[in-house]
Amino acid sequence: MSQENVEVVRSRHERFVATRQFDADGVGPDFVWDMSNFRGWPERQIYEGVEGAAGFLSEWIAAWDQWELEAEAIHDAGDKVVAIMRQRGRSKAADTPVDMRFATVWTFDEGEPTRMEMFSGPDEALKAVGLEE
Predict the structure, then answer these.
(1) Three-state SS sequence of 12-47
(2) What's the pLDDT score for residue 133?
(3) Which of 14, 22, 110 is nearest to 69 (CA)?
């Protein structure tokens, strides 16, 4: 099942990049988007349900000009999947270019994503699931 979970994360990322919208397909009502591991995140730490995740992503991308998101690598970690991401763009607030790496850890239960935790850096996410980069 873990390789299937990797493909789910890859597919979800591709759809998000294409549509700029959270993909609610296959996400249950108890889904949690968790920002508590993203250093310095000043907003809410937990976004619940599809509506919470969609709202977070809408606000996130609205803050950028010339924004792009790339999945550099996706790692199988059993019932979890780690996606190493690179974001590039220009901050609307500060009008400065940004090129940053971060990671997401997706938790699955019977093929359904139940949680997404965002980490400030890839090493932190890989360590959280017992992997090394």
Answers:
(1) HHHHHHHHCCCCCCCCCCCCEEECCCCCCCCCCCEE
(2) 57
(3) 14
User: pLDDT of 46-88, one tens digit each?
Assistant: 999 999 999 999 988 888 888 999 999 999 999 999 999 999 9
3-state SS assignment for residue 98: strand
The rounded distance, in Å, linking the Cα atoms of 130 and 118 is: 16
Look at residues 65, 79, 64 and name the one whose alpha carbon lies nearest to residue 129. 79
Average pLDDT of the residues in 93-97: 89
> For residues 131 and 83, is the Cβ–Cβ distance under 8 A?
no
Q: Bridge partners of 105?
A: 82, 117
Q: In terms of DSSP bridges, do strands 80-91 and 97-109 run parallel, antiparallel, or are they unpaired? A: antiparallel
Q: Report the chain's C-alpha Rg in angstroms.
A: 14
Q: In this structure, which amino acid lies at residue 90?
A: R
Which distant-in-sequence residues (6+ apart) come within 8 Å of 56 by Cβ? Answer: 33, 35, 44, 47
